[in-house]
Amino acid sequence: MKTPNPRKALKTIRSLGTFWVAEKTLDHLEAIRRYELDIALQLLPLTGKLLEIGAGTGWQAQELEDRGYDVSAIDLPSSKYRENRIRTITDYDGKEIPFEDNVFDVVFSSNVIVGRHQYARIFTLLRRRVESVS
Question: Is residue 81 one of the residues assigned to a domain?
Fold first, then answer.
């Protein structure tokens, strides 16, 4: 009798679980974003000018605006959520942030994928867009 490979079995179970459980709907996405935002709000100042990068539908940007933040949101024009946007989102090329330096108090981003080779450049750009806090 052949001994089962536990690693292979676990991988198969995980794949089936992902297929059957993770229904990726906008409601599912909103639930995840609400959870993330509740955590982030504990760390953010109570008000200020905020830039959201990778805004998707704009749901989090709208929630932040409803809570008193002055929000600008950007995303790629190729975003799969473009047709589901619920607020104004500025399209950008993923390389140059389309705002002047020292404009924002906070930069917020949730689940945006950036290649490792781009981290230093992106963080340098972000630092220039955020006003210095003394």
Answer: yes
What is d(CA 42, CA 101) in angstroms, rounded to the nearest whole number?
A: 26
Q: Which domain does 132 fall in, by range? A: 46-134
CATH of the domain at 61: 3.40.50.150
Q: Are 100 and 46 in contact (CB under 8 A)?
A: no
Which tokens is 106 given?
């906070």
Burial label, 82 (beta-carbon count in 10 A; 0-12, 13-18, 19+): middle
Contact 62, 40 (CB under 8 A): no
Q: What is the pTM of this model?
A: 0.71
Nearest to 52 by CA among 68, 35, 65: 65
pLDDT tens column, 85-118: 999 999 998 888 899 888 999 988 887 766 556 6
